[in-house]
Amino acid sequence: MPMLPDWPTYLGAPQTRGRLRSVPEDFEVEEQFDVEFSLDGEFDWLWVEKRGNNTEYVARRIADLAGVSLKAVTYSGLKDRHALTRQWFCVHLPGKQGRDWDGITEVSGDSFWRVERWGRHRQKLRPGSHRANRFVIRLREVVGDRDDIDRRLKMLCAGYPNYFGEQRFGHDGANIEQCRAWFEGESKPQRFQRSIYLSSARSYLFNEVLALRLQAGTWLSPLEGELYSLRDSGSVFAAEPDEGIAKRIAEGDIHPSGPLFGKVARHSVTAEVDALEQSVFAAHKTLCDGLLRHGMKMERRSLRVIPKELCWQWLSDDQLQLQFSLPSGCFATALVREFINA
């Protein structure tokens, strides 16, 4: 039985159905990241296209080929395994001239990864450095009301709930189950797994808060004690919930924010928002206590995300293609679940 809750949607449960990721090419993701190489330094940056491999696996193979430890290889974001993706990797090679990465390709069955271009740089690639991801998504075997899909997509151009996608939580929410077992002393995960579990726990708590506000009709309503997130920047600020704030929310300039749980930060929610979030934390005490023990610090994430340049076209009677960009860390699957059961 799936462990994850069926978190509510903004537009109500869609009645149409379709297939997502029939093949990896149905889900294309490309990092939006402008790089100007210094042509010297200690770092090789590699632009990699991959299919059927996760980011961690490719990082390990790059480390092997470069003759360095996995710690010497970095990337900005994790990309889906069941997709066709393009992203940057970085290899630290101090005191070396780098290696020739031209033509590096590895194929295993239907999976592959290859270096499409590369360059030398003085700067290290750090997590979360890319500004956005560009998506091309194809849905097959679509059955239902095409007019309803078009209506929903037009509404989603103005934004949708910024849920973490189900892939963050593992198959049927297994990451959350394993995280609880770890926090309760029933297991001892490896280092890489620990970071995944910590991230999954914070994402789960955020989704719970967002779901509660969505059900209450306050996810886009300014409440007392709110911290607001600036569109695209992630910076937060406090302000009284007046007409000016409501207008900026309506225009998409700012969004109410939700918690990425951890130790209380310098800027904190108060009053009505604090009471609401504390009710969620109290219901998931095991996760919260574990996150505090492992040194997590409270951060904020916008409750809404607005896709850029969202457009769509019907390739045939039962195939729909979408194109859009999202800020890094936001999930395309959270958009898809608003207009179709896939």
CATH homologous superfamily title of the domain at 160-305:
TruD, insertion domain
Count helical runs.
Answer: 8
Mean pLDDT metric = 93
Order of helices and strands: EEEHEEEEEHEHHEEHEHHEEEEH
Residue share in β-strands: 25-35%
Rounded radius of gyration (Å): 21 Å
What is the highest CATH level, the class of the domain at 160-305?
Answer: Alpha Beta
pLDDT under 50 segments (min length 5)? none
Helix content range: 25-40%
Q: Tell me the major beta sheet.
A: 10 strands, mixed
CATH architecture of the domain at 160-305: 2-Layer Sandwich
Shape category: globular
Helix/strand-derived category reads: alpha+beta
**How far apart lie the N and C ends?**
18 Å
- Give the number of DSSP strands: 16
CATH domain topology of the domain at 160-305: Pseudouridine synthase
What does it look like?
The protein is of the alpha+beta class and 342 residues long. Among the domains are: 34-121, Pseudouridine synthase (2-Layer Sandwich), CATH 3.30.2350.20; 160-305, Pseudouridine synthase. The protein is built from 8 helices and 16 strands. The protein has helices at residues 55-66, 146-156, 174-183, 191-216, 243-250, 271-283, 285-293, 332-336; strands at residues 17-20, 27-32, 43-51, 73-75, 84-92, 105-108, 111-121, 132-143, 160-161, 227-230, 236-238, 254-260, 299-302, 304-305, 308-316, 319-327. Helix 3 (174-183) packs across helix 4 and helix 4 crosses helix 6.
Q: How would you concisely characterize the structure shown here?
A:
The chain is an alpha+beta fold.
Question: What labels describe this entry?
Answer:
16 strands; Pseudouridine synthase; 342 residues; 8 helices; alpha+beta
